[in-house]
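Work Package 4 report. The design task specified in the project plan requires that, given a folded chain encoded as structure tokens, an amino acid be chosen for each position. We show below one input record used in the internal validation round.
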């Protein structure tokens, strides 16, 4: 059931939220390709430090490595060859890290570089490792600075764009808010660069399909456009995070957002976090194996509120590791649920049809009593 969201009071959520993911775009970070925008970086860092002094935990997602590399190498247009993009990213990442470290040092804040690939977030074990590292850094008061590991990517050097990366990081750390700083003031009813009658949308629901039709294409420096930001809001909403799309050049933009000032576009998550997490499990991970259930287990899952116990499993198919997604099938072969498995395939086969009390004898150790915990289980 979707929670009722009153858009008139939606900005109150920006005050109550305690964990923000802030994504800064390439055009902002590099002065539209003219070179690293160090005064801008310092201004954003000053505001982030102010937010942290108010108790907000911040993860920074930074674009700009390719654009900064292009600037350092004297390139005026973005190359299409992957190896040139990778080289530019490697050169540019050095400048980005140095600039952030210098800026945060003025506030006695440590930073940590986190480079991710799509595989890190699609593989559950690596996903959990990344989440653990990010949470530890946050608890230590360190500011994680996340970018895509462009140097090793072969799939056209992208997640798609860093807007999507920002949303996935918001899922990863279970953030309350995703702030996307861009070179536009927010989402407009039309492209404001070509339509004088374009109006700024101040609040809306992330799930509203009308917003996608209002978004335009990306610029020359980055891969994202307004459409990727709208889609990122949908992804972020799956874990309950609200998204703000706002102009990064607006003075004191972050502190003004925290003060509930009506700047930018707030796209509110209209799904509860727990439900959203389960939607992510159901719709965005391919399953690695299958568990065939007996009728009793099928009925228990459909009633709701139950974990999947080994005793209700008739057969185990496929090769999978602990933490990967498996599908639960009924006797007719139809998928009735998906979830994150607590054991690998060989252990699951040994436990198949057995009671939890037999686990020590079968495995030589006592782990979780359920194959899939209710918190990691989605009935379809």
């Amino acid at each position: 059931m979707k929670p009722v969201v009153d858009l008139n009071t939606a900005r109150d959520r920006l005050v109550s939220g305690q964990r923000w993911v802030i994504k800064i775009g390439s055009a902002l970070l590099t002065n539209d390709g003219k070179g690293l925008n160090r005064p801008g970086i310092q201004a954003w860092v000053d505001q982030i430090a102010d937010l942290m002094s108010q108790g907000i935990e911040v993860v920074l997602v930074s674009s700009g490595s390719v654009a900064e590399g292009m600037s350092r190498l004297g390139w005026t247009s973005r190359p299409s060859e992957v190896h040139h993009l990778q080289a530019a990213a490697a050169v540019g990442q050095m400048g980005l890290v140095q600039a952030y470290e210098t800026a945060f040092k003025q506030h006695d804040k440590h930073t940590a570089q986190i480079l991710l690939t799509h595989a890190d977030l699609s593989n559950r074990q690596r996903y959990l490792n990344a989440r653990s590292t990010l949470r530890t850094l946050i608890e230590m008061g360190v500011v994680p600075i996340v970018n895509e590991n462009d140097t090793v990517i072969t799939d056209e050097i992208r997640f798609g764009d860093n807007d999507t990366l920002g949303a996935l990081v918001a899922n990863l750390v279970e953030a309350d808010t995703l702030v996307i700083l861009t070179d536009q003031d927010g989402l407009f009813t039309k492209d404001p660069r070509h339509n004088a009658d374009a109006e700024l949308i101040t609040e809306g629901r992330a799930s509203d399909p009308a917003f996608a039709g209002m978004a335009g294409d990306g610029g020359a420096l980055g891969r994202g456009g307004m459409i990727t930001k709208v889609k990122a809001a949908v992804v972020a909403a799956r874990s309950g995070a609200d998204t703000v799309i706002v102009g990064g050049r607006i003075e004191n933009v972050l502190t003004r957002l925290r003060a509930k000032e009506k700047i930018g576009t707030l796209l509110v998550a209209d799904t509860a976090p727990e439900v959203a997490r389960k939607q992510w499990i159901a719709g965005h991970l391919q399953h690695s194996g299958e568990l065939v259930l007996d009728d009793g287990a099928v009925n228990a899952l459909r009633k709701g509120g139950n974990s999947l116990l080994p005793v209700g499993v008739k057969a185990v198919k496929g090769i999978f590791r602990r933490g990967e997604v498996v599908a639960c099938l009924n006797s007719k072969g139809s998928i009735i649920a998906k979830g994150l498995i607590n054991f690998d395939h060989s252990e699951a086969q040994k436990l198949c049809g057995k009671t939890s009390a037999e686990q020590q004898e079968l495995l030589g150790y006592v782990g979780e009593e359920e194959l899939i915990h209710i918190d990691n289980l989605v009935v379809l």
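The chain has two domains: 10-279, 286-379. Validation will be extended to a larger panel in the next phase.
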